[in-house]
Design a protein that fits this description.
This protein has 216 residues and is an alpha/beta fold. The chain contains eight helices and five strands, in the order βαβααβααβααβα. Helices cover 54% and strands 14% of the residues. A five-stranded parallel β-sheet has the order 2-3-1-4-5, sandwiched between helices. It starts with 7 loop residues before the first strand and ends with a helix.
Amino acid sequence: MNKSLLTSRGFFSLEGIDGSGKTTQMDLLEKALIKQGYECLRIREPGGSKISENIRELLLNVEFQDKMAIQTELLLYNAARAQVIDELIKPALLANKLVLADRFAWSTYAYQAFGRQLDPSLILELSSLTCGEYFPDYTVILDLPVSESRDRMLLENKKPDRLEAESDLFFERVREGYLDIAKRFPQHAKVLAANQSVEALHQQILSSVLSRLKGD
């Protein structure tokens, strides 16, 4: 996989570290696109299908904190992704529906290549093998300083999962990974500041997606 990614038109993803507002923005984006007449399939990653959701439970289980090998983690993410592509994403795109993913393969690049410090070229090659042509055509990265991410997560007052419990240094590397994606693949990824008003951010995301759909 290089700067000319093999992607699927009509496939969009939102990315960012925890607390960046992906779920809120995905709610707004989905509603806006449906209002404009588009049929949408919405998924979260890891997850989406029954098998993928079961893999998600393994990946996020705090019982496996500091026990799961990083290679196991990498392969499980890709296994969950392969399953949801086969079951849901491929049929949706063939039916001319839009696919909206709350995280997808770029998460693995940011979290495993940068957060876990695995070889980025290995991550990209594995993503290419797993996804084939079923890779987001366009991704909006919601960028947020790690300190603000932590503050937002504290407000949610919930017990952190296995990934959320990682160190600030880990998430600084993940954030760097997301910014690296936008630098390396500017035609497929765009960074927006997550620490602005919900409505302002929504309008920027919607504008980017509609522009892509119109081929601008």
